[in-house]
Amino acid sequence: MAQAKTALIIGAGAIGSFYGALLYKAGWQVSVVARSHASIVQQEGYKFESPLGDISWQPHKVYRDASEAVNTFDYVLLCTKVLPQLDRVKLLAPWVGPNTVIALIQNGIDIEAPIANAFPNNPLLSCIAFIAVTRVAPSKVVHKAFGHLKIGGYPINYQQAAEPFAEALIAGGIKADIADDIVAERWLKCVWNTPFNPASVLANGADTLQMLDAPGGEAFIRALMAEVVAVAKAEGHALPEAVIDKNIESTRAMPAYRNSMAIDYLNGRDTETAAILGNVVAIAQRHRLATPRLEAMWALLQIRQEPAQV
Amino acid sequence: MAQAKTALIIGAGAIGSFYGALLYKAGWQVSVVARSHASIVQQEGYKFESPLGDISWQPHKVYRDASEAVNTFDYVLLCTKVLPQLDRVKLLAPWVGPNTVIALIQNGIDIEAPIANAFPNNPLLSCIAFIAVTRVAPSKVVHKAFGHLKIGGYPINYQQAAEPFAEALIAGGIKADIADDIVAERWLKCVWNTPFNPASVLANGADTLQMLDAPGGEAFIRALMAEVVAVAKAEGHALPEAVIDKNIESTRAMPAYRNSMAIDYLNGRDTETAAILGNVVAIAQRHRLATPRLEAMWALLQIRQEPAQV
To answer: Which of A187, B158, B179, B237 has its CA 20 to 30 A from that of A8?
Structure first.
């Protein structure tokens, strides 16, 4: 039997500890960096409620910070939010050795390039999580539904790095597949996220049906989606024509839903507006493409960040 | 000496009681409708702090509601906010007789037609107030600066109604002038208000310099202003070419300023977004004119009003 693979989770919140649980269940040796809750996690591990059954697990090692860093991991999973003030390269650097595969399980558009540029010799896997999971205490996670992970190499496919990772997750109990074009998959996800998430924040936490049912609401969301589709196309990722109708229909078919960015906003936590909206606007501007509604939302969100002068 | 003219103020808040004070000072017999604070106003009148000196005054009569209505006033001044849920025709009707001049001292675009249609035989004066005034208690008003009133007949000039009104206000101590095209004057004011007021609400009360200094902020405000100018032009009111530059420059020359709509919003009071933004969007749609940024703000504000479903 081959030696168990080793993995480190950086940003072991709800998402990170969930995928860590699956790798653990598949027999990997999984460690975490847990800056704020290291002692609790060390003592208690991660307790889960999950439709997958008992996937509670104990990390092999719990690191507090980079002063304890070792760089011999087969895989390092970066599962933090993508925030302008968070230097992801700096977070990764101490833990990435010459043979380490880097896997990003993160939201947003255009989030791979800085990491690929900083670690050009390491295989880079860009992953999109479709999951409903919440950490309710430092070592307690509630996994409500789903878990599907789309995995794709960036900028090339890195098949040898992707396959064992996908296999372990599948062995752990979820759907995981390897996408030929993970950036196209990110655009597809952004057709929903880029309109709904920031609009909900600007509307002080409105849920999906509030947004669609307000006078002019659905037309506004559709117009935002059309702007995202146009930017994706300019980037060489032509999305299926029916994508907007399908997104609206599936949203209307679900119960009213308040998205995670809105929940972060209402709880005073940092939001990934730059990764999900700002980067889309920046790409549109590179292509000299008009995205007035996306730009309006981005400007309003940046105005909110500006310090008051009165 | 001609008999003193009679006037009634409906909506005798800061603005209404201020212009009432000037008419009173000019010798008019001025009454008010004061639904919530009738007893206090009856006893104390309106006390003012003002650079114009002591303009405190006692209304001739203080009416509580329409059950006491008489319709023999020479002038009825409607000084309420313009809100979709407030039926202005119904507010006016009991007090308007066959010879009554109606004067609207109100904000917004396209606010005259419903009144002109309901009272086709009464002269209608549409007035724009340039003033900084705040009611600090039911019968106590602080007038900080300005007071200039632009007065214009709608849909025709109604010179005979406008002139005595302007003369009385000038006698009362402020600048008042008669505009040939009051609707054009409203558009000119909306070049500032329609972008800045709703943007500040959506940015949770941002002041002018926060808005202009945020990344992309000034470009956003300028683009909003350009949309307003385009709608005004489609309505036949071509505004001076330099109007956007002038508005930005004068705003930057002032100290940081939080506008009254933002203050209303932060204090949980109704805001005039429909009159100042919604009506502009509606006019643009009649002209099939694209105003994507104004529409985005209007949609977001309407989403905020939609009841939550979670």
So the answer is: A187
Q: Which distant-in-sequence residues (6+ apart) come within 8 Å of A285 by Cβ?
A: none
pLDDT band at residue A60 under the 50/70/90 scheme: very high
Angle, CA of A161, A164 and A165, to the nearest 5° = 80
Q: Which domain holds residue B274?
A: 184-305
> B-chain residues within 8 Å CB-CB of A256?
308-310
A228 in contact with chain B, both atoms CB, cutoff 8 A: no
The verdict on residue A310 lying in a domain is no
Interface of B with A in 248-267 (CB under 8 A): 255-258
Asked whether the beta carbons of B8 and B37 are under 8 A apart, the reply is: no
CB pairs under 8 A between A and B: 119
Mean pLDDT of A40-59: 95
Q: Is the CB of B212 inside 8 Å of chain A's CB atoms? A: no
- Among partner residues B210, B292, B303, which is closest to A306 by beta-carbon distance? B210
Residues of A in contact with B309 (CB under 8 A): 207, 209-210, 256
Q: Which residues pair with B169 in a beta bridge?
A: none
Is B33's pLDDT higher than 60?
Answer: yes
Tokens 């632009």 correspond to: B150
Q: Tell me if B310 is assigned to some domain.
A: no
Number of domains in chain B: 2
> Tokens in use for B12?
């005798």
ipTM of this complex: 0.91
d(CA B152, CA B156): 8
Question: What are the backbone dihedrals phi and psi of residue A136, each rounded to the nearest 5 degrees, phi first?
Answer: -100, -15
By the 8 A CB rule, do A138 and A302 touch? no
Using the 3D structure, point to which of A128, A156, A180 is the last residue of a domain: A180
* pLDDT at B309 exceeding the cut of 90: no
Task: Determine the pLDDT at residue A145.
Answer: 86
Among candidate residues A139, A161, A180, the one where a domain is terminated: A180
Give me the mean pLDDT over the B19-48 stretch: 95
Same domain, A169 and A192: no
Measured between alpha carbons, how far is A164 from A266 in angstroms, rounded to an integer? 39
Model pTM greater than 0.90?
Answer: yes
Q: Determine the Cα–Cα distance for residues B39 and B111; give it in Å rounded to an integer.
A: 31
